[in-house]
Amino acid sequence: MLSIVEIDYGTPKVASPTTVELLIDGNAVRVPAGTSVMRAAAQAGISIPKLCASEMLDAFGSCRLCLVEIEGRRGYPASCTTPVTAGMKVSTQTPKLADLRRGVMELYISDHPLDCLTCPANGHCELQDMAGVVGLREVRYGYDGANHVHAEKPDGSANPLFVAKDVSNPYFTFDPSKCIACSRCVRACDEVQGTFALTIQGRGFESKVAASQDNRFLDSECVSCGACVQACPTATLSENTLIDKGQAERSVTTTCAYCGVGCSFRAEMKGEEIVRMVPNKDGHANHGHSCVKGRFAIGYASHPDRITTPMIRKKISDPWQEVSWDEAFAHVASEFKRIQATFGRQAIGGITSSRCSNEETYLVQKLVRAGFGNNNVDTCARVCHSPTGYGLKATLGESAGTQDFDSIEHTDVVLVIGANPTDAHPVFGSQMKQRLRAGAKLIVIDPRRIDLVRTPHIKADYHLKLKPGTNVAVLDTLAHVIVTEALVDETFVAQRCESEAFAKWRTFVAQEKYSPEAMEAQTGVPAALIRGAARLYADGGNGAIYYGLGVTEHAQGSTAVMAIANLAMATGNIGREGVGVNPLRGQNNVQGSCDMGSFPHEFPGYRHVSDPDTRALFEKDWGVPLLGEPGLRIPNMFEAALDGSFLGIYIEGEDIAQSDPDTQHVTAALSAMQCIVVQDLFLNETAKYAHVFLPGSSFLEKDGTFTNAERRISRVRKVMTPKAGYADWEITQKLAQAMGYPMNYSHPSEIMDEIARLTPTFHGVSFDRIDQLGSIQWPCNDDHPDGTPVMHVDEFVRGKGRFMLTEYVPTSEKVSAEHPLILTTGRILSQYNVGAQTRRTANMMWHDEDRLEIHPHDAEERGISDGDWAGIRSRAGDTVLRAMISERMQPGVVYTTFHFPGSGANVITTENSDWATNCPEYKVTAVQVTRVSQRSDWQREFHSFSEEQQDLLDQAKPADTLGRA
Amino acid sequence: MSITVYVPRDAGALSLGAEAVANAIASEAQQRGLDVDILRNGSRGLYWLEPLVEVSSPAGRIAYGPVEVTDVPALFDADFLRGGRHALALGATEDIPLLKSQQRLTFARVGIVDPRSLDDYRAHGGYRGLDAALATDAAAIVQIVTDSGLRGRGGAAFPTGIKWKTCLDALADRKYIVCNADEGDSGTYADRMIMEGDPFVLIEGMTIAGLAVGASYGYIYLRVEYPHAQRALEAAIASAEEQGYLGSDLRGSGKAFRLEVRMAAGAYICGEETSLLESLEGKRGQVRFKPPLPAIEGLFGKPTVINNVVTLASVPTILDHGAAFYRDYGVGRSRGTLPIQLAGNLKRPGLVERAFGLTLRELIEDYGGGTASGKPVRAVQVGGPLGAYLPASQLDTAIDYEAFAAIGGMLGHGGMVVFDDSVDMAAQARYAMEFCATESCGKCTPCRIGSTRGVEVIDRIVAGDHATRERDGVLLRDLCQTMLDGSLCALGGMAPLPVLSALDHFPEDFSGAVEPAAT
Question: What is the per-residue DSSP string for B410-474?
């Protein structure tokens, strides 16, 4: 079912510089050339009946309801498939057309159930609407003929055409008896999602929608993105929540809180209850598409595990005590003040999260800098994209991706390195797939065969299957080929880049040691492939690089980011549509949390705390003196905690005990602290070590903004009351007040106004302006009043682009006889990050445990079969996962996801980190894998600790809910 | 010196026992120590005489038929190798009146040449059309074809030159020639006869088409039930490649054209050109909407000429003899010749290639010899399963696209199926709907649901009483109108034609098995 508020114009919008005027029912209409008659009519307010058409899909011409008469043309052309021509005279309503349409509807209804009143689509069913529009009064065929409606024929025998409901998918129901075979679902799966899970099976009257080889939806290739459900004009594919709750009564536009794509959604509401999440067709990042997480996996927000009352305890072995908000704030303030009084001003700090809104993150860093009086604030971007900030700032001058997502429509060569868009950024992954199907070439640099390498109708031109940890080596060899084979865009480099730095870089990468042949043994990538890929990227038209954590989470993460920027500059692939350097951000607000000054060394807008002018600006506005020395980074906080000099921390929305590397080190540090305050929806892993729990609010319960991977600032809108009473920004504000630092915002828009006032790249941003434009890509200021889709157009933000030397230094994490394999990590579509949200949804049906992917050869050597327990041991620790034998892997490399705390992925990862930013080297850990018969010691301890903590939580609850868990 | 004996390898002849006859002749000759060279030719199209055995003689070929295995010793005894007298002797083949009176342009070599021999093809005038094409430019070829008046012989009768011009004018890095050889209309076999009997003429026609529009690759989408045609085509393509008539440098011209045979998906709808393209691309055979025309956006999105076998096979003659030669045959806007395939209840079923203009009656009576049953002709279905049923009163209609259109009929691919007066026209109307229901791709609603409802309504009419019959008759006509005007392609758009013609011309057949008592 389409959104309850959107108008569907029937066929996609056409962008054409020329317009055409035609007459529709006597009205002059002017539209871009190439527009369909149907869309032209709709734009003029004339609606032509339709069923198989939707503007999300290419015209199909099958339902035959939209037939029109066109002067001078024979027959009755379908308005959806007929492009406008100048002077065309169209009649959309004639007696003949009325007869035809009624005739078609009579056929439709002769094979459709007559249960409208009890049908989930009732009220928004397009078939029902069309029956009304054409004035169908009678179905003369009767209902006893061949049909897909009844399980039995009139004579009592089984109806072979009938297919029972498929309720295998947890989020939607497929009821073939209501299907009108319009193919919208099939086309959505193809044209919007690009998965090709659906097909029309059989022909003629037997045509039916089938998933894969006539499988149940859950057993098919379906990725549950929901595009088919949205496309369905009847109740054949309906959200289960719609079936359960009935039609929504209002729609509120908001932004998804999952990955960095930042999809815009319409939350369809009934009172304070969400009926459905429908991706917003006008959403600038997603254009009406979504994935299984954003559309369906929102059940966590109302999950019984949600904690809605503040709690405190003295020691982590004590039961939790429920307290009032005021008591909680007073307790935290008193503890933090005590610690500071005893151990010094630097003894406390704060961590914010990429899942928080811009306004929330801004307040946390303000609380730390102005309220705590130090710079001990950091964010989880530390452990994901901090090298992006560093590397892009150094080379291009701005810590952000250069393009908007739509830029890919102009890309000729897509280079994906260390990213898995179809799993981790699925909606952009779909857009990328459509572009690749339209002819763009593809280079994938990844140790593992990700789906993009070979997926229906897409095959990578080059898959550089490198050894983990050799990104910089591979990037340098690509640069070597570009430099030594005269593939440099000399004009661009001469005009736009620092010539001295370029000359040095050219000499540097031209060294024989960076030739693909010389590096082959290290990288594992055949030299010929490197040469081919380099030529393609440099010479294949617009080249765009998309990268993810597979680039940043390395000892040389920042180096790799700079090497990527070097490649783009050397080939002139920057500063226009279709090119650029595009970090795919893991979480919804990675970009925003970095923009908001959540790193210990930077104020909002990436301005160093040591800069006196910036500091003066903030001191004046905030009314307190500020420190000019950077504060502690997360790993420094742990060290300081173990040293006894850092004892209090305020953590909002982040779960460092699960997501930071070397878990045992982290938990030791947490155990050494005196006051850990966790603000979250759930008792997460960190909260199990906490002394104060402040119940947070989900993205549905507050106003604010998220900034996605394209620097796009979008509104998050409150659709329901915060379950614990306060939105997160209010909690931070109250805490500041309790600490004695005044904060008195009455709405997050005022926080954004302050951000805009103090941050040059945000000067033009306000909630009102975002409401006007839909979303804004920063920089947004007097120079760019509507924002900036593509950066560095005429010159780089730093003036001239700066080539950085990127010496390849192999990681110290090396395979040895003791640890002969390399473990690397990644994500899976159905789960998100540490899993706190998605594990509390039916997404568990697709992925209910992290598994160790291992090449058949490595498995065979170790006597490991699919599904066996595999012990994984690194120098940091060991854990046990079930094995999954997979030819996606190369021999010597194993892989796992990290969505379950009990998996202990970070028990194994080491303390190694990026030389510039301390971003952990999650992607390279030398391990040994053996077949084992039970879980690891750590896992067993983890399990019993978790049970204890759950008991302590349960004890805090009123008696009537005890025993729930 | 050995004597050449011709025994067709045409699938029609084979189904009548030609293989056994060939074997019998070979072994009989061996037993008798006679030096016989058996050549497997195509069929002359005189199917009532198949297996038609011919022997070469200085005066031309002498025909015997229909020959059964048991006739073979007697033929030898009668010294048929030297044209001896025998009950099956038909005299000189060329003088058989029903062959002699034909105007064989497209079928000029079918039954005469060795389909496996490129040399034989050339010896009989083959590849002169290509020589002419190579000597001129693309636009000129298109002009010649346009001037010839050739129209698509697959059914739609669209002017071939105009189609080619559209494709020629479309700018693209690659273009295709696609031959629609998914011959599936009832009572049709002209395509098959050409592909089995003279495959080089199709290859030559496609090559010329490639030169005409700038396409360097062609596909023959061949009906999956035509294995003999597949073998003949593949052998011919191989020898054409070997001798430089296909490949990257056609006859040293520097121009390229390659060809491959792709077996069809076994669905009638894949004979519809856009479904065919989908199928050729490896997809479900589902109709595309037009525009875009295939000539602009066809196979794999590239400009594509898609023509029927007979159309393409008519091109070499036109290039060889000139546009005027071909245009001088025919009447009105129907120029040239049409290979008509006679089938159904006839004494002499077979292929008749004649210039447009002769009448249905001449075809059925003079060539077909009237019904096989001897009963009067009641109806003729021309143009395949979607063609109207014409009553005996319309037999004087001329074979001419416009004349047929004027009576609500169509020539289609030139197949005719004749019925005598024992036919039940309500059953035939039902069959038309049933055929549509079976073969519908299922994309558009009028065809997908309408054809199934059509069968049901006809059943109700036949089984019903007077009152319901009248109401259902109105419904059936309304349904036919919805399908005619609303369907996406010709399958749903024409399936009502046989139904409506049956209703119009034979209403008495719809009054049910038991007439209501007269009042």
Answer: --TTSEEEEEETT--HHHHHHHHHHHHHHH--S-SHHHHTHHHHHHHHHHHHHHS-HHHHHHHHH
CA distances from B13 to B41, B88, B342, B378 (A): 10, 16, 15, 29
The ipTM assigned to this model is: 0.92
Nearest-CB residue to A64 (from B291, B437, B486): B486
Per-residue pLDDT tens digits for A417-437: 999 999 999 999 999 999 999
A246 touches B: beta carbon within 8 Å: no
Reported as a pLDDT band with limits 50, 70 and 90, residue B517 is: very low
SS3 sequence, A385-396? CHHHHHHHHHHC
- The token duo for A837 is 């949200």
Q: Is B490 on the interface with A (CB under 8 A)?
A: no
Structure-block tokens of residue A201: 């099976």
Let me know how many helices (H) and strands (E) chain A has, helices first.
Answer: 30, 36
Phi and psi based region of residue A85 (left: phi greater than 0; alpha: psi -120 to 50; beta: remaining): beta
Q: How many CB pairs under 8 A join A and B?
A: 107
Q: Measured between alpha carbons, how far is A503 from A500 in angstroms, rounded to an integer?
A: 5
How close B444 gets to chain A, by Cα (Å)?
Answer: 4
| pTM score, whole prediction | 0.93
| Closest CB to A141 among B269, B441, B453 | B453
pLDDT at A577 over 90: yes
Residue A369 DSSP code? I
Tens-place pLDDT, residues B189-246 = 999 999 999 999 999 999 999 999 999 999 999 999 999 999 999 999 999 999 999 9
A100 and B485 within 8 Å at the Cβ level: the answer is yes
Q: Which residue of A has its CA nearest to B493?
A: A75
Residue B2 has pLDDT above 90, yes or no: no
Q: Please give, rounded to a whole number of angstroms, the shortest distance from the CA of B202 to a CA of chain A.
A: 32
Q: Which residue of B has its CA nearest to A98?
A: B482
Check A103 against B481: CB less than 8 A apart: yes
- Residues of chain A with Cβ-Cβ distance to B438 below 8 Å are 204
- Locate tokens 């697709």: which residue? A846
The answer to whether residue A83 neighbours chain B at the CB level (below 8 Å) is: yes
How many angstroms separate the CA atoms of B193 and A948, rounded? 85
- Residue of chain B nearest A109, judged by CA positions: B449
Could you give the angle at the alpha carbon of A248 between the alpha carbons of A247 and A254, nearest 5°?
Answer: 145
Inter-chain contact A64–B289, Cβ cutoff 8 Å? no
Q: What beta strand segments (E) does A411-522 contain?
A: 413-417, 441-445, 454-455, 458-459, 462-464
pLDDT of residue A960 exceeding 70: no
